[in-house]
Amino acid sequence: MDILHNLFNLGTLVAGIRIATPILLAGLGGLHTMQANILNIGMEGMMLFGAFSAVLVSYYTGSIIFATIAAILVGVLAAVIFGLFGVKFKCNIIVAGIAINLFGVAFTIYLLRSIFHVRGALSHPKIVGFPVMDFPVLSSLPYIGELFKGHSIIVYVAFLMVFLVHLFLYRTPKGLHIRSVGEHAEAAASVGISPDRIRFQAVMISGFFCGLAGAYLSLAQTRMFVENMVAGRGFIALAAIYFGGGTPVGTMLAALLFGFAEAVSLRLQTLGFPSQFVLMTPYLMTVFILIIISYVKKVHSQKRKYEIA
Amino acid sequence: MKRLSQIFGCNLLRPMLAIGIAMLIGTFIILLSNQDPLFAYSKMFKGAFGGFSRITESIERSIPIVLTGLATAVAFRTGVFNAGVEGSLYLGAFAAFIVGHYVVAPSIIHVPLTLAVAALVGAAWAFIPGYTKAMYKVDETVTTILLNYVAILFTAYLVAIPFKDMTAGSQQTPLILDTAHLYRFLPPSRVHIGIFIAIFLAIFLYWLFRRTIWGYNFNMTGMNPHYANYIGINVERTMINSMLISGAIGGIAGAVQIMGILHRFIDQFSPGYGFEGITVSLLARNHPLGILAAGFFYGALQTGATYMDRTTEVPKELITSLVAIIIFFVTAEGLFTYTKQNGAFRKKLENIPGVRKLLQEGVDRNGHST
C-alpha cells in the first residue's frame, strides 16, 4: 500500500501535467495536419528548432517574450520547409518528415557547437525562463488546488489552447476547410477550396505549436538546451493525436494519460523498479487502439456490403 | 556513364544534383561560421578515403547501413513504408547475443545459427505491423515508428536487469563466444565478413526483384495495389511477405553489428542505423545494387565527418544536416517536374557540358521524367 501511495498521489499528478504539456502543445499542432490528412512526423524537428531558438534569443536578449516569438517563428519556418517539400514539391510526406527531423537534430547541434562552443548541453545564468504562477481561483481550492499551483505560465496557456483549437476547428470556416480537405480533397476542391493551400496552412499551424512546445522544453521544463532534447516527444505527440481520435479534447486526455504514465515510471525508477515497461505503455496502447479502430472499421464496411447485396 | 546508370537502374542526375546543392549550402554555412569550407571538405575527404585505415573504417561503418537500407528497400518496393527496421535491428541484435552467448557449437554452425535466429526474430517483429497493414489497413508508418520505441525499451530492460554484465559499469551484456564472431579479414581494421553478407543479400534482392515471381508481385503491389489485385496477385500476402523479408534483414543487420564489431549487446548501440537505412534506400531509389553504393557513400560521409570534426573547427553534425538537405532534393518529385516545365532552366542546365547527356539518359530510362 505504501508503494501505491507513493506512486499515485497529487505530486505524481502535478509532475504528469508538466510532462504532458509539451506533448499536448505539439499534439494540438499535429492534429491540424492530421485533420488535413497529412501524416506529420516532422514535429520532432520543429520542436527542436523551437527549443534552440528560444534558448538562443533568451540568452542574447534576456527577454522571455522575444524568446517565445523567436521559437514560434522558427518553428513555423521549419514547418514551411517541411510544407514546401512535402506539399508543394511532392516529396513523400513521411520522407519530408524524416528529413526535417534529421535536419533539426543535426543542425541545432551544429549551431550549439559553432555559436556557443559547447557539447552536450548549454545552461547559463543569462538564459531567462518562463515565469511561474498560480492559476487564479482554482489554485485556492482545497486539496486539488495543488494541481493549479506553481506551473510555468505556458502550462495554463497550453490547456486554454485546447478550447481555442476546438473552436477553431469546429466553429470557423477555416477549420471546416481543413477538415474537409482531410476528409475528401477532391470534393473540397470542387467547391473552390485549394487543397494544397489548406494543407500548407495546416502544416504552418503545426509549426506554430511545435515551436511553442520546444520553447516549453528549453525554457520552462529546464532552463537549458540539451542535444536532441525533444527525445521522441514529437512521436509521443503523434501517438496522443491518434489515441485521442484526432480531436483537441481527446488529444489532451491522451497527453495527460501519457504524461501521468511517465511520471509514474519516474517514481518507479527511484524505487528501483524497471521503468521501461511503463515507458512503453503509451506506444503499446496507441498501437492497440489503432489496430482496434481499423479492425472495427473493416468489420463495419463488410457488414454494409452484405446489407447492400 | 550510360552503363553505370543502367546497372543502378536509376538516373544519377538527381542524386548528383542534390549532393551538389547540399555541398553548396554547406559551403555557405561554413563560411557563415567563419571557417574555411575547402579545408573542411578536404579533411572530410581525407578522413573518408585517405589511406588504408580510413577506407576500412568507412567500409566498417557502412556494413550495417547497407543492410538496413536493403531491409527498408524491400518494404518500400511493395509500397509498405516500414520505418521499423530500427526495432527489428535491436531485437535481432539481442537475439544474436542470446544465441552467441549461450549456445555452444563450432563456428561453422554457430555463425549461421545466430544469424538465422536474429533474422527470425526480426521478421517476427515486422510481422505485427505487416499483418495489421495488410489485413486491417492500419497505417504502417505510425505503428512501426511507435513499435520501434517498444523494441528499444524492451532490450533496454533486458540489458539493464536480467542479462546485465555485472562486472561492467554501463548497461551491457557479457561477451558472446568466440565461435559466434564474424571473422575480421583485414586486420588491424575491424572490417568483417559481414560485408559479404551485405553484398550477397544485395545481389540476392536484385535477382529476386528482377527474376522471380515474388519480386514481380512486390513491384506490382508497390506500383499499384489495385491493379495487382486485379491481375490476381494476393496483395495482402505480398505485403506481409515483404515485411517479413524486411524484418529478417533488419534482424541480420543488428546481429552482424554484434557479431562483427561489438561482440556484446550494448544499450542504445545503434546511432539510428534504421533511419540511415531509410536515407540510403531513398538515395538509391530502392535499388539493391544502388544501395551498396549509397550505403558506402553514407558510411564514408560519416567517417569523413568524424575526422573533419577532430581536425577542424567544423562540427560533424554539419554533414548530417547536409544529408537531410540531400534527402529533400532527391525525393522532391514536384521540384524537378517544375523545373522541367520551366524551359529556360532546362536549357541552362543543358548548356552545362555533360548534363545534357544525363538529362537525355534520364528521359530514356524512365520514359517520362528526369
From TrEMBL, chain A:
Gene Ontology, cellular component aspect: plasma membrane
Membrane topology according to the record: Multi-pass membrane protein
TM spans (from-to): 7-32, 38-57, 64-87, 93-112, 153-170, 200-219, 231-257, 277-296
Pfam family, one: BPD_transp_2
MF annotations from Gene Ontology: transmembrane transporter activity
Protein's UniProt keywords contain Membrane: yes
Domain of life: Bacteria
Protein's cellular compartments: Cell membrane
Entries under InterPro entries matching the protein: ABC_transp_permease
Protein name (record): Simple sugar transport system permease protein
Organism: Desulforamulus putei DSM 12395
TrEMBL record, chain B:
Coiled coil regions, renumbered to chain: none
Signal peptide range in chain numbering: none
InterPro entries recorded: ABC_transp_permease
A GO CC annotation given for this chain: plasma membrane
Cellular compartments annotated: Cell membrane
Membrane-protein topology: Multi-pass membrane protein
Keywords annotated in UniProt: Cell membrane, Membrane, Sugar transport, Transmembrane, Transmembrane helix, Transport
Transmembrane annotation, as ranges: 12-32, 62-80, 87-105, 111-132, 144-163, 191-209, 243-266, 318-338
Gene Ontology MF, one: transmembrane transporter activity
Main location: membrane
Domain of life: Bacteria
Record-given protein name: Simple sugar transport system permease protein
Native organism taxonomy: Bacteria, Bacillati, Bacillota, Clostridia, Eubacteriales
